[in-house]
Amino acid sequence: MVVKQTAGRDTLGEFAPKFAQLNDDVLFGQVWSREDKLSLRDRSLVTVVALMAQGLVDSSFRYHLTTARQNGITRQEIGEILTHAAFYAGWPKAWAAFQMAKEVWAEDEGKSGKAQHQQEMVFPIGAPNDGFAQYFVGQSYLQPLSTSQVGVYNVTFEPGCRNNWHIHHASKGGGQILVCVAGHGWYQEWGQEARELHPGDVVNIPTGVKHWHGAAADSWFSHLTLEVPGENCSNEWMEAVSDEAYGKLN
Ligand code: MN
């Protein structure tokens, strides 16, 4: 995608046409636009830190903070970025940058955990998972991504939410694959230690294995679930994961 920028021509087009052209067509039109080489989000991160390190808190810094927010840097992340950069660029520069960042991210302040979680994830959270609610503790959401060939669904768990112990059955093939996409969660097989899950983790669940999956107590969590094709597939739902057992994990 080509990043369209007219600030140079709008502001300096008559006074400094070459500078305006380099700004709009080269810096933005060619360098910022190399999205396939470095994402807009990462380019925003680099730019914000570079400007902050010079002590710049002018209108261009405000523009780049606003762009960083649009490019997906969250309120929590800009806090981390400026805190980290403060040690290398200088404490007073971070103070100055924070004053402006607070204003730019102000409207995210009241944002729900669900909205923040959605901001971290490319797949939609989807609708409340009412069809399976009886097999879950807490609120979950379901978004079908593929309903032909191989079924792929995005399942989102609010903090503390998990499904009951269950088994995926099949007479041939079958089972389930989880691909973790956002947040922090847990997977546990009967008689085994629970395994922490983070974005990028993949869990292969064979048929016949009693298990559960869900969010951590303090985090939203989403995984894709892939239904491995098989014959006579069914799910056997069992008892809930007790608050006591779940509480020990977190
Ligand atoms: Mn399962």
Class based on secondary structure composition and strand pairing:
alpha+beta
**Major sheet: size, sense and barrel closure?**
6 strands, antiparallel
What general outline do the C-alpha atoms trace?
A: elongated
Reading the helices and strands in chain order gives HHHHHHHEEEEEEEEEEEEEEEH
Distance N terminus to C terminus? 42 Å
> Tally the helices: what do you get?
8
Order of strands, main sheet, comes to 1-3-4-13-8-11
Explain this structure.
The mean pLDDT is 95. The protein has helices at residues 7-12, 17-32, 40-53, 59-70, 75-89, 91-104, 113-119, 243-249; strands at residues 127-128, 136-137, 140-146, 152-157, 162-163, 166-169, 172-173, 176-183, 185-189, 195-197, 202-205, 211-215, 221-227, 230-231, 234-237. It has 8 helices and 15 strands. It has a 6-stranded antiparallel sheet with strand order 1-3-4-13-8-11, with no helix packed on it. Strands 10-9-12 form a 3-stranded antiparallel sheet, with no helix packed on it. A two-stranded antiparallel sheet has the order 2-5. It is an alpha+beta fold and 250 residues long. Manganese (II) ion binds at residues 166, 168, 176, 205, 211, 213.
Please outline what is shown here.
This protein has helices at 7-12, 17-32, 40-53, 59-70, 75-89, 91-104, 113-119, 243-249; strands spanning 127-128, 136-137, 140-146, 152-157, 162-163, 166-169, 172-173, 176-183, 185-189, 195-197, 202-205, 211-215, 221-227, 230-231, 234-237.
